[in-house]
Write a structure and sequence with these properties.
- The structure is a single chain.
- By secondary structure, the chain is an alpha/beta fold.
- It has 3 domains: 83 residues, OB fold (Dihydrolipoamide Acetyltransferase, E2P), CATH 2.40.50; 159 residues, Rossmann fold; 52 residues, no CATH class.
- The protein has 11 helices and 13 strands.
- It has a 6-stranded mixed sheet, with helices on both faces. A 5-stranded mixed barrel has the order 1-2-3-5-4.
- Helix 4 crosses helix 5.
Length: 327
């Protein structure tokens, strides 16, 4: 079957040149690219850029992933075969966000994400240290972190708390304060909600992730729950990860609240050594710019070839890890 890897429909789902290159390096396999938008016990919901439908994992792919202690996550791209309605091969990832469970096992959260919107409420559950762990997790995965401090109506010192978080995160990490219900939320995030980009909302339950998702979608696509005013405990409103396409052209993944976030040793030791490259990349002409020879590349314009070469060298081991698909 012909692989249509450059259609506008796929680009709308987040397909880019990096994924196309990864697919080209795979051995011949049947099927066409689809993106996993939901995961269920009985299978997956996938999207081909035109419609959403159900799919299951082909037995051979399941055995391969199981042998590698791997699996399929929301945001993954795979090849779909009409006969059998199954996913036949996982397309190598460009990023993978994961956390360490209490028993030491790693849990895959979402894949192929460009930006991680890390949400924390400025209420009784506020913890700058926990937010920094979220930030390190995103950086270790190769996703650019953006810190969102919500529920600004609950405190009088929102500016002071923002300054505290900014000092911990460093100037290269954006820190925003917002009301997730506000019409201004979309405008505040506009520079990240670009066509073809994929973002994920991560944070504890009750911090406003589903409310923000609804706001960005312009509808009530996600059920939200009231927050108890006396103890600031939000009810669980998202029970499964799901990828949605926004009116802006970006894709956004909502996730269930994470009660605990334990970092692996690799994640805890990660340093944001190339933060300026991620910041400049936001200003490139193309959302999937590879910073090689593309016109309008802000990274090439403002940084030396030596600095870009250092960045590529640092990314090589990480890219190899994602190509293997192992956690």
């Amino acid at each position: 079957m012909t692989r249509n890897t450059h259609s506008d429909q796929l680009i709308r789902l987040g397909w880019n040149t990096a994924l196309a290159d990864a697919l080209a390096q795979l051995p011949a396999a049947s099927g066409r690219p689809v993106r996993v938008v939901e995961q269920h016990r009985s299978g997956y919901r996938v999207h081909d850029g035109q419609q959403e439908f159900s799919a299951r994992t082909q037995t051979a792919l399941y055995k391969t992933l199981d042998a590698d202690d791997d699996g399929i996550a929301v945001g993954d791209w795979a090849l779909f075969e009409e006969e059998g309605e199954s996913l036949t091969q996982l397309i190598p990832r460009t990023s993978l966000l994961e956390r360490t469970r209490e028993d030491g096992r790693r849990q895959r959260l979402v894949a192929n994400v460009d930006t991680a919107l890390l949400v924390m409420g400025l209420d009784g559950d506020f913890s700058a240290d926990r937010l920094m762990r979220y930030r390190l997790m995103a950086i270790a995965a190769g996703a650019a972190p953006v810190l969102l401090l919500t529920k600004i109506d609950r405190v009088r010192n929102a500016d002071a708390l923002r300054a505290e978080v900014q000092a911990l995160a460093g100037d290269a990490t954006p820190v925003l304060t917002m009301d997730a219900r506000s019409p201004q939320a979309t405008a505040m995030l506009a520079s990240w909600l670009l066509p073809g980009r994929t973002l994920v909302l991560l944070g504890s339950s009750g911090v406003g992730k589903s409310t923000l998702m609804n706001n960005l979608l312009g509808n009530e696509g996600q059920r939200t729950g009231a927050t108890q005013s006396h103890d600031d405990l939000g009810r669980h409103t998202t029970t499964a990860r799901s990828l949605r396409m926004l009116p802006s052209g970006a894709c956004l993944i909502d996730t269930p609240g994470l009660r605990e976030l334990k970092l692996s040793q690799e994640q805890a030791q990660v340093e944001d050594e190339f933060a300026e490259i991620r910041e400049l990349a936001r200003h490139c002409r193309f959302s999937d710019c590879g910073h090689r020879d593309e016109p309008g590349c802000a990274v090439i314009r403002d940084l030396s070839a030596a600095r870009i070469a250092e960045w590529r060298a640092s990314m090589a081991p990480r890219a190899k890890k994602f190509r293997r698909g192992k956690p």
